[in-house]
Amino acid sequence: xxxxxxxxxxxxxxxxxxxxxxxxxxxxxxxxxxxxxxxxxxxxxxxxxxxxxxxxxxxxxxxxxxxxxxxxxxxxxxxxxxxxxxxxxxxxxxxxxxxxxxxxxxxxxxxxxxxxxxxxxxxxxxxxxxxxxxxxxxxxxxxxxxxxxxxxxxxxxxxxxxxxxxxxxxxxxxxxxxxxxxxxxxxxxxxxxxxxxxxxx
Length: 201
Prior knowledge:
It is a multi-pass membrane protein. By secondary structure, this protein is mainly alpha-helical. It has helices at 15-33, 39-62, 69-72, 76-88, 99-125, 141-173, 177-183, and strands at residues 9-11, 185-192, 195-198. The chain has seven helices and three strands. Mean pLDDT is 87; it is low at 1-7 and 191-201.
């Protein structure tokens, strides 16, 4: 475990972000695998994911520096520029999320939110769940079921892209991003302006 008092490491991911990240990964996996055979578990996982999303939206506003959306949400040009720089092996290091990683966070939160919403809409059409009795009950059940499944599969696709991005970034930047999300720290090798350039080993 890195020494947090050492100037060679910097604390990046706070405990709440790390708990959110791994809990979301677990809950989505369970929800996806229990869609057909264990409906009660599937429903509760959906509620848990919804609660996590709500927490992350709040934490993205009031949380510490690297948890805040303002720290990693960038424009399209920065995302494209970063992705191009990855191909040359000369991508800039970021202490928190890089532009592509930040975009992935938003994409995953959005797709998970849509998956949960359409799942609750299905329950509402059947007269159950928190949306029962609302306007969503007028929707066609078969259509909503297809959209819910589409969103879930799109989320799974984004998860695979996310994992691939973590592997590529870890290799190119010579850092262990998975370990950083467990320990919460990364090694700092230099300082540049107000940000830090680092490499985790």
